[in-house]
Design brief:
It is built from 2 helices and 5 strands. The N and C termini lie far apart (96 Å). The chain is rod-shaped and about 105 Å long.
């Protein structure tokens, strides 16, 4: 026994295939447009992930000393004094030397140790 389909029944599957194909084409076009937009979208640049002290500077581990991004010293890199003056690269070093807290005017005080700029470093 041979069953023949009505012409309307034959058209429905073809219509579904065309609809699915159209959806796939639209999806591909959308993804291609999204990709192209992402290529030209500006992305923020980060020089380093670390935070800055209250004076806008941070310890420069690669070169020693400090590097400033904000404030009056922006763009400057300061090296620790080698003339025998006391220098602590961070509060851990000041604490290890038994000098913390370091007050303004005392040997070893530096602005990078005083995050809130109240005159007392490594509180």
């Amino acid at each position: 026994m041979k069953i023949e389909l009505h012409p309307a029944d034959k058209a429905e599957p073809e219509w579904r295939v065309r609809a699915e194909f159209s959806v796939l084409i639209a999806l591909h076009l959308f993804l291609a447009a999204l990709f192209l937009v992402s290529l030209f979208a500006p992305t923020p640049a980060q020089g380093h992930p670390g935070g800055l002290a209250a004076d806008g500077c941070h310890n420069d581990r690669n070169n020693g000393g400090r590097h400033c991004h904000r404030g009056p010293n922006a763009g400057r890199t300061t090296q620790p004094s080698r003339s025998g003056d006391v220098y602590y690269p961070n509060c851990a070093a000041a604490r290890a030397a038994g000098a913390a807290p370091v007050r303004r005017g005392q040997p070893g005080y530096a602005r990078h140790l005083d995050r809130d700029n109240d005159g007392v470093g490594c509180e």
